[in-house]
Design a protein that fits this description.
The protein has 176 residues and is mostly beta strands. 14% of the residues lie in helices and 48% in strands. The chain has four helices and six strands; from the N terminus they run ααββαββββα. The protein has helices at 10-16, 21-25, 53-59, 171-175, and strands at residues 28-43, 49-50, 66-83, 88-94, 108-129, 135-154. It has a five-stranded mixed beta barrel with strand order 1-3-4-6-5. A hairpin with a 5-residue loop joins strand 1 (28-43) and strand 2. It is extended, with a radius of gyration of 25 Å. The chain starts with 9 loop residues before the first helix and ends with a helix.
Amino acid sequence: MAKAKKKYGLDTFNKGYSVDVKETYGDLIYLDTIASERFNYEDTETGAIYDSQAELDKEQPDKNLQKVENTHEIEHLYVQVYSEVQKDNMDIRVPVDFDDSKFNMNDNVRLTGKVVARLQTGTKRVDVTTANGRTRQETVADYFFTVSAEGLEKVSNQSATPAPQPPKPKEENQKK
């Protein structure tokens, strides 16, 4: 039996769609560069190392047998920008070798190279009011976008050519 190829889905969306940066985010203002360091999560009883606290908790629920260690290696690098269209700060993931030395706070910038928005799934807790008026918390699905770019460059504030001026009406026409 032939396996049907999925036409839609999270992986298909994340692989096939790029972003119209100017329309989606508008003018971007550089704020800061943030490094995310890698941590090792170790089960001291078995010596096993895990990539996340959740994995370690699942395998070793006893907190006394857990060790969390910062490796001081940069795992991810993010550029924080303000988006004029989104009216909010955004963290844009950039390559780890990104050089932020030529950027100052409040510089106008543009994303360069391939820019991709990926849809991520997770969960969040929300308050739900029941039919009898009581409130309880439920865990529901949560969806959000992460954005990555190959780079960033400054945008000059002044345009090279002045904006065209509308033609002035002739005085002869105004006198009549």
